[in-house]
Amino acid sequence: QVRLVESGGGLVQPGGSLRLACAASGFISGIYVMGWYRQAPGKQRELVADITKIEDTTTYTDSVKGRFTISRDNAKNTVYLQMNSLKPEDTAVYYCHGADRGRVRNYWGQGTQVTVSS
């Protein structure tokens, strides 16, 4: 079993910053990619960013490019999402995600709320 635990969500004003963290535990040797998805009310869950374990290849959705940065600390089995220049449209529940190379096995955290509002 794999457990993903998020932290770092909250309320922030437009233009502000937050950093999310996701700590993985359990049988994590098979995890190849980790990342963040988000789901706003009435919308589908979407990929925000992810990063591969060995190559550190990153992927970002267009709307966050230049504002968000994903990184990982393999020694701590933790992935981070630094979010700068936050906008109200970034408001959503952010979920940590992990998967094997073929994305056959997928793991999810419980989600953390990010609210961008003045």
Shape: globular
Secondary-structure-based class equals mainly beta
In quaternary terms, these chains amount to: single chain
How much of the polypeptide forms β-strand, as a percent range? over 45%
Number of helices: 0
In whole angstroms, how far apart are the ends? 40 Å
Sequence stretches where pLDDT stays below 50 over 5 or more residues: none
How confident is the prediction overall: mean pLDDT? 95
Order of helices and strands: EEEEEEEEEEE
Helical content, roughly? under 10%
Rg estimate, integer Å: 13 Å
* Largest sheet, strands/sense/barrel: 7 strands, mixed
Q: How many strand units?
A: 11
Fold and architecture overview:
The protein is mainly beta and 118 residues long. The chain has no helices and 11 strands. Strands 2, 4, 5, 6, 9, 10 and 11 form a 7-stranded mixed beta sheet that branches. Strands 1-3-8-7 form a 4-stranded antiparallel beta sheet, with no helix packed on it. The protein is globular and about 40 Å long. The mean pLDDT is 95.
Short description:
This protein has 118 residues and is mainly beta. The protein has strands at 2-7, 10-12, 18-26, 33-39, 46-52, 58-60, 68-73, 78-83, 92-99, 106-108, 112-116. The strands form two sheets. Strands 2, 4, 5, 6, 9, 10 and 11 form a seven-stranded mixed beta sheet that branches. A four-stranded antiparallel beta sheet has the order 1-3-8-7, with no helix packed on it.
